[in-house]
Structure formats: C-alpha cells, structure tokens
Specification:
The protein is of the alpha+beta class and about 200 residues long. It has a domain of about 140 residues. It has 2 helices and 2 strands, in the order αββα. The chain has a two-stranded antiparallel sheet with strand order 1-2. The longest helix has about 80 residues.
Length: about 200
C-alpha cells in the first residue's frame, strides 16, 4: 500500500480524487438501478417463454391425445435449421435478441399419415421456436446478472472504500498541516522572544 504523503500537494490530490469519486458514484448508482430493472424484465421474459412452451406442450396433449397410442414414427418431423440473432444494446450491455427462427418440416405423405399430423407440425414448430427463445432469454438473464454484479461491486468500491478512505486521508493531512502550522507559529514567537530578549539585555561597559 502506498504511504500517504502529508503535504499540501497531497492534500490537493486527495481533494481532486474525492471530487471525482463523488461525481462518478451517482452515475454508477443510476446504471445499477437501470440494470436491475432490465434484469427483472429479462427474468420475466424468461419465465413467460417457459410458460409458453409448457402451454404448447399441454395443448398438444389436449388436442392430440392420439399421439400416445400412435405407431407412426414422428422423429425428425420438425427440425430447426437456422437461427438469426442480432445484438441489442441495453444500458451499455450487449444482449442477444432472436430475429428469426427457421424450422424444416420433413416431407411426409398426406395419405400415409393422418390429418392430425398437420396440426402436430404447427405445434412442434411453435415449440421449437419457443425453446430457442428460452435459451436466448436465459443467456440474456446470465449476461445481465453478471453486469449487475460487476456494477454493484464498483458502487460498493466507491461508496464503502474509496470515498471514506479519501475523506480520512484529507482529514489526516489537514490535521498534520494544522499541527505543522501551529508549531511554526510557536517557533516563530519563541525566536522573536529570544531576539527581543537579546536586544533588551544591557551591554557590558
């Protein structure tokens, strides 16, 4: 740790640091609050997307109960083939955003498979897109949590360490400089008194 210099120049430096820290802290606090709001939104979006997938799966079970008894091979019927992501700047944090999801539907004979397979294809496509959005939503939450954690650490650094330490340093330097000034005044008075004493002392004949 660098030893604190007890001087007027050091006092000026510490005052400048304190001014800078006190200027930065409100902006850091604001960004932390904004990130907290965005993180809450991202968590709500993630929960809503999960609920959407569960709803789709529930509808499949309710609308297509024949799936449980079917012997038709439905594997590979719908597959995601392309995912187009873009980046979104939110409070200075770059987040992934789903722009487009493309799914491929395997060719199947309308005669070989029952009519309800068409409805199933639509549900499977919706579910595939929703699951993709879940993954992206989870990534947005992870990134925002990390950003919020970092900005909170910076806020605590300024609020709990740097600003109190700088104020303490300023107080120490001011006390030391005050003591030095008083000591110098006392020494000057003593020197003046000694000088006056020598001047007033009668000289020998």
């Amino acid at each position: 740790m660098v030893r604190l210099k007890l001087s007027k120049a050091s006092l000026q430096q510490e005052r400048q640091r304190l001014t800078l820290y006190e200027k930065l802290l409100p902006s850091l606090e604001l960004k932390r609050r904004q990130l907290t709001i965005e993180l809450d939104k991202a968590r709500e979006e993630y929960a809503a997307t999960r609920a959407e997938v569960e709803s789709i799966e529930a509808r499949v079970g309710a609308e297509l109960p024949m799936l449980a008894a079917t012997e038709i091979d439905l594997k590979g019927l719908v597959m995601m083939t392309a995912l187009d992501l873009e980046q979104e700047n939110v409070v200075g944090v770059r987040l992934p955003l789903v722009k487009h999801v493309e799914c491929r539907v395997a060719e199947y004979s309308m005669l070989a498979k029952p009519a309800w397979v068409d409805a199933l294809v639509e549900r499977l496509r919706d579910a595939a897109e929703a699951r993709t959005r879940i993954q992206v939503a989870a990534e947005r939450v992870r990134i925002l949590e990390r950003a919020e954690r970092r900005i909170t650490q910076r806020v605590n650094l300024f609020d709990k360490i740097l600003i109190p330490r700088t104020r303490k340093n300023i107080q120490r330097i001011r006390i030391w400089l005050g003591d030095q000034e008083r000591t110098a005044v006392v020494q000057a008075k003593l020197a003046k008194a000694r000088q006056e004493g020598r001047t007033a002392w009668p000289s020998s004949p």
